[in-house]
Design goal:
The protein has helices at residues 3-7, 17-42, 46-55, 57-85, 91-120, 123-129, 133-157, 159-165. It has 166 residues and is an all-alpha fold. The protein has one domain.
């Protein structure tokens, strides 16, 4: 019997940072991601969106790839969150895999988006589409890196995680 299986019936409350991380993956992240997807598609007025998609098909592909990447990360996060919520034996390794995957996919999506925007859009189109292009790149880069570092260190150093997963 693994530590995770033994600890599913622990008498101490399971409302710990571990449970909070599972809640982030199961509820908070999907809600925030759906909101981000809707907001990102509403940035563009329909006439500008049509022009961009016709003139810059690579940009259109980048936007679709970004949306698909977000959906993938959310779906995988829900899977990992449910494993953690049920205190499944692979919880720690799945959570660490999720963190690495999330960071890697998000960094790749940011890089692809920047590369496509910089190589395909004219500076005039960039200004008309993006009010503050720099913060649209820097903010997600910082937030994803901070999210990764905090939770990675938690899974490495936490006594609770060691108690449950060994």
């Amino acid at each position: 019997m693994s530590n995770a299986e033994k600890n599913t019936s622990m008498k101490t409350p399971y409302w710990t940072w571990l449970r909070f991380f599972a809640l982030i993956l199961l509820a908070l992240s999907p809600i925030a991601s759906i909101n981000d997807l809707i907001s990102s598609w509403k940035i563009f007025p329909p006439d500008v969106l049509r022009k961009v998609w016709e003139v810059y098909p690579a940009f259109a592909a980048s936007v679709c790839l970004n949306s698909a990447g977000i959906v993938f990360i959310v779906a995988y996060g829900i899977r990992v969150g449910s494993i953690l919520w049920k205190v499944g034996p692979s919880g720690k390794s799945e959570a660490q895999r999720y963190l690495l995957l999330r960071l890697g996919v998000n960094l790749a999506l940011i890089f692809i988006s920047v590369a496509v925007v910089e190589t395909t859009l004219s500076s005039e189109d960039k200004k008309s589409i993006f009010a503050d292009y720099g913060s649209m790149v820097i903010a997600p880069l910082i937030s994803e890196t901070v999210f990764f570092v905090i939770w990675w260190l938690y899974f490495l150093k936490s006594k609770r995680v060691k108690e449950i997963y060994g």
